[in-house]
Amino acid sequence: PYVPEALGAFTRPISTDNQEAQAYFDQGIQLKYSFGVTEAVRSFREAQNLDPDNAFCYWGEAWSWGSYLNRKMNQKNAPHAYAAIQKALERINANTPPVEQALIQAMSVRYVEEFDPETQTEQDTAYAEAMRKVYESFPDDLDVGTLYAEALFLLEPRRGYREIEDPDVQRIHQVLEQILAVDLKHPGAGHLYIHATESTSRPEKALTVAEVLGDLIPGASHMNHMPSHIFNEVGMWGKSVRANIQAWHTDQRAKQGSAFAIYSGHNLHMLLYSASYDGQGAIAIQAARDNVATYTDTGSSENREKARALHLLTLIRFGRFSDILEIRERPKNAIYGGVWDFAQGYALLRTGETDFASVYLKLLKNTANSDHKAKFRGHSIQHLLGTLSGILEGEILRKENNLDGAIAALELAVTTEDSMTYDEPEPLPSVS
């Protein structure tokens, strides 16, 4: 359905005389800029139904099926993307504006009939080069600039620290900053700019954008949430809490059909993280509980166990040790099972059961030192559980008045955690 109360003022006028088709196209592009890709596809398809001869409505669908920062092109989506851009090419005519023709032609090099993930980088590189030419031909078109920046960004590693002096990073920043200098409230450019700066040494560069982005598409929860990526990096924890509460409220409205829920679990993860650092225990713990509830009836078993692990870490943060000891079901996943061992050991230590805490430390160390390949958001079991085992060992030794041993164990935990790659939020938000 078309949900005008969820949308912002942003529009991209296209070559159609059908006002409903234009409305659905605008909904599609707003949702795609918000990473609501499935909803964007459905919106662009409805625009096609209303104006089946408009080439650009098919371009929108093709764009939505493709790679974006949070997901690479896959075997499932590739045929839909290819089919959509072929339909767009077939519908180019004398009434198709030059910029739309150029964007369709550029998108056509991104998809091939026989998808092969091993050669996807070749198509992505060709697409970025094609978008460079479109950008040079239409330098004042803010959406063209945003799409060019996105194409460049997709050639970069998704996670990890970014050196702000890196020429490739500087080029992405330059394109996005030129757009934002013209229109600070461009939702696509603002979203990408936050991701392009958050993991650099200068996250504050995106602070002005962060102050406005969350309200630009009020019914897209991921857009509400996005400013928190910068607020966290500059220590504005209270603002991050508010951004993620706004996102969670949007997720609730989506259940009544008046908004769009995008990454609900991530919104709650970021909420419990920022509330933990802001000392807002009630909000952090409730967010952790809501996260568990989100995956109780739906989602994979791994997501349910991850949510339970985050709940345990949040309870530790605020000293709810008796609550931890009442959670008796150990997750089957090696990483989350290790988090459960850590939480049980830590809670037992804090309730005077040092001997039992040492038993859980041994279990935790065995898992942390294993060659298990389990990962959480790309972080290895050795890094994650190695950090937690150092914390627990250090606290046990401190309890035993072995301060030199405690300091050594805790310093090793710090070194282990520091060796982890950048992530948002951090993988161990409640005990860092």
Give the SSE map.
Blueprint: H1 19-33, H2 37-50, H3 55-65, H4 78-90, H5 98-108, H6 120-137, H7 142-153, H8 167-182, H9 187-197, H10 207-213, H11 221-225, H12 228-233, H13 237-254, H14 264-277, H15 281-296, H16 301-317, H17 321-325, H18 334-350, H19 354-368, E1 375-376, E2 379-380, H20 381-399, H21 403-418
Antiparallel strand pairs: 1-2
Describe the structure.
With 432 residues, the protein is mainly alpha-helical. It has 21 helices and two strands. Strands 1-2 form a two-stranded antiparallel sheet. Helix 3 (55-65) packs parallel to helix 5 (98-108). The longest helix has 19 residues, at 381-399. The chain is elongated, with a radius of gyration of 24 Å. The chain starts with 18 loop residues before the first helix and ends in a 14-residue tail after the last helix.
Please bin the fraction of helical residues: 55-70%
CA-based gyration radius: 24 Å
Main-sheet strand order equals 1-2
Q: What low-confidence regions span 5 or more consecutive residues with pLDDT below 50?
A: none
> What is the mean predicted local confidence, pLDDT?
95
Biggest sheet: strands, sense, closure?
2 strands, antiparallel
Extended strand count: 2
What letter string, H or E per element, gives the SSE order? HHHHHHHHHHHHHHHHHHHEEHH
Note the overall shape.
elongated
**Gap between N and C termini:** 43 Å
Strand portion: under 5%
- Helices, by number, come to 21
